[in-house]
Design brief:
The protein is an alpha/beta fold. It has nine helices and eight strands.
């Protein structure tokens, strides 16, 4: 909590500074479809980042590229991928991107977490996180037919309802798991640039891995595990209604009761 408050105080001080003479151009390179949920979520994040950036002297753009084009670039601040596990690992394992944050937006594949690649940041909840959440629920509700989701249109806590409203108003769509993850990815980056005042990939990666206390409308102070997984609550959904949040109240370990915790 103290770290989150300190971070917001720093950001407030930045906002109160006079307009900067030189605008920081923050280009985020993206591999994936340029339509659908993840894309719209990133667009929402981009709009909000640029509103904030007007006060901080930062301008954000999202640059779609192919894998081949990505490997031809001279300088990259961050790579965002809505792709399968193999493609994400191919990018992350490349020497070219060893010190670049590589964001996994949409894949819940446990392989990406167990690989423990130092530059991979997994935004969506993993398969194991969802399995653990469902196991907690079924232990108390064995007849339930619930499923686990990372996001839901009726989620209201932590200003989630306002985010849902903003997204639906802007795009006429309901925010789902992938659109939340796309939005959260851009917000993580814009928060980091605001605090570090840097677009150097290594600086940003280090801050994200060690110092970020993220408010993704799932509760303040979210951090990354050494597996690269973003700690977060998930939702138990039955008949398209939120039945509970996981981890369930009283479960030992809290957020760390969901998914793989450490690198083996």
């Amino acid at each position: 909590m103290q770290r989150a408050i300190k971070g917001w105080l720093v950001l407030l001080c930045l906002v109160m500074q006079p307009a900067l003479a030189d605008v920081i151009d923050v280009r985020l390179h993206y591999v994936g479809p340029t339509e659908g949920s993840a894309w719209l979520g990133m667009q929402q994040g981009l709009d909000e980042a640029n509103i904030q950036g007007e006060f901080l002297g930062q301008k954000y753009s999202l640059v779609p590229v192919t894998i081949d084009e990505l490997f031809q670039l001279d300088s990259v601040t961050a790579v965002l991928l809505a792709a399968d596990a193999k493609q994400i690992q191919d990018v992350a394992r490349s020497e070219k991107f060893a010190n670049v944050p590589v964001f996994n937006i949409s894949s819940d594949d446990d392989v990406l977490r167990s690989a423990c690649l130092a530059n991979v940041l997994n935004i969506s909840a993993s398969q194991k996180m969802k399995q653990d959440a469902l196991a907690q629920w079924l232990a108390k509700n064995p007849e339930s037919t619930a499923i686990v989701q990372g996001w839901h249109k009726d989620f209201k806590k932590f200003a989630a309802s306002q985010l849902n409203i903003r997204f639906t108003k802007a795009y006429g769509e309901i925010m789902d798991d992938d659109s939340w993850a796309g939005w959260a990815t851009v917000k993580l980056l814009s928060d980091t640039v605001a605090r570090t005042q840097s677009i150097d990939a290594a600086v940003i990666l280090n801050y994200l891995k060690n110092d970020i206390a993220f408010d993704g409308q799932k509760g303040a102070g979210a951090t990354f595990r050494e597996t690269g997984q973003l700690r977060q609550l998930v939702l138990i959904v039955e008949d398209n209604k939120i039945a509970a949040e996981a981890p369930l109240r009283g479960v030992k370990g809290g957020l760390d009761s969901l998914g793989q915790q450490n690198c083996k």
